[in-house]
Design a protein that fits this description.
Number of helices: 3
Shape: rod-shaped
Oligomer: single chain
Helix content: under 10%
Strand order of the largest sheet: 2-8-6-1-3
Keywords: Signal
Distance between the termini: 128 Å
Structural class: mainly beta
Largest sheet: 5 strands, mixed
Radius of gyration: 43 Å
Number of strands: 29
């Protein structure tokens, strides 16, 4: 082998990531940076220099030790030993280690070997495993489950926790969320008592403005049957109307809220569109239409006017005139508190034949 200038020993290491920090200890070692030495025209590989012949004097041989360190754990990850002739140039490349990243600011050392037992150190740190769900992000918003097709999960290995149908129309606090690499956002749900319900895809919920949860369109007519429930102006429980003033009246519940406290609140409007506030749904019954809900009655009534008709339904299909019923007594088995403000009795004669619905103003 021809030699021109200095002899260079190139040490190329296998790749196996590992190390944190950077520590170098050189004993009378002349070192330079990684840039190539233009005066050196020959590079020897590890195979070129090892093993050395027995004729080589021990005074001419230097031991080079290169180590990779996990500085956080304080342990060596690898140790490489090389026998190099004094005066030769050594180029050493740090190993690439699986599960580690090199934190020493360079990966190659280039030096002229001048002394024995030279030490080279490269520092590594562990690579934290990438979590597909990403990092936890604090949230705190309230959400109502509106889609039964989304279950909750105990972890991001998709261990099933609860069926979406069991959580439908319930409100939870999403204390945190994860922006998953699959493109979906997952919310970490808790109930009012702090019980964890798992992770749910946000596509299965609607966000609310507070503990009341999300507004949900409803548009059903409700007759208030219990005077023990007030209406509220907000969910800080500011009273709007006393239950005694709205009982036995029918309202349009345009929307509802499934509160985190477990109750459902209806947003009530009268026939003119005036808002009456929020009321617990336990206060009344839902009807099929503007007539409101059926209320059992049983009273006896006498037709006192000839100027009213009875109706077959609340689309006002004519049934008969009270001229033919005047002064007769019927049983009002039930009644309806219509949203128009009137009460309608459902009349039966003595033989149990239904006579239709009549305005309460026509009887006494």
């Amino acid at each position: 082998m021809k030699k021109t200038g200095l002899k260079k020993v190139l040490v190329t290491m296998l790749i196996t990531p590992i190390m944190v920090g950077t520590v170098f200890a050189f004993d009378n070692l002349a070192s330079v940076t990684v840039e190539a030495n233009e005066e050196t025209t020959e590079t020897s590989s590890v195979e070129d220099i090892a093993p050395l012949s027995l004729s080589d004097s021990s005074e001419e041989i230097c031991i080079i030790r290169a180590e990779g360190w996990d500085m956080k754990e304080g342990r060596a990850l690898y140790t490489d030993l090389y026998r190099v002739k004094k005066g030769e140039e050594l180029v050493y490349h740090a190993r690439v280690l699986d599960g580690y990243k090199l934190v020493t600011p360079f990966s190659t050392r280039k030096m002229i070997v001048t002394s024995n037992e030279t030490f080279i150190a490269f520092n590594y740190e562990k690579i934290k495993p990438e979590k597909p769900e990403g990092n936890y992000i604090a949230d705190g918003r309230y959400v109502t489950v509106t889609n039964k097709n989304y279950n909750t999960w105990s972890n991001f290995s998709w261990k099933y926790r609860q069926l979406g149908n069991d959580l439908l129309n319930k409100t939870f606090q999403a204390k945190g969320r994860y922006e998953h690499q699959n493109g979906s956002t997952y919310l970490s749900l808790y109930d009012a008592n702090g019980k964890w319900y798992g992770y749910i895809n946000e596509k299965g919920v609607k966000f609310g403005q507070g503990k009341q949860g999300a507004y949900i369109g409803y548009n059903k007519y409700v007759t208030i049957t219990s005077k023990g429930y007030n209406t509220w102006s907000n969910f800080s429980w500011k009273t709007r109307h006393s239950g005694t003033t709205i009982t036995n009246k029918t309202y349009l519940a345009k929307g509802k809220y499934h509160h985190i406290n477990g109750s459902t609140y209806l947003s009530l409007y009268d026939k003119q569109g005036k808002w009456y506030g929020y009321i617990n749904e336990k206060s009344g019954k839902v009807g099929k239409g503007q007539e409101g809900s059926y209320i059992a009655d049983g009273r006896k009534v006498k037709i006192a006017s000839k100027n009213y008709n009875t109706w077959s339904n609340f689309l006002w299909k004519y049934r008969q005139s009270t001229k033919n019923m005047y002064n007769k007594t019927y049983t009002a088995r039930g009644r309806y508190q219509h949203v128009n403000g009137s009460t309608y009795y459902s009349l039966y004669d003595g033989k149990g034949n239904w006579q239709g619905y009549i305005n309460a103003a026509a009887v006494k």
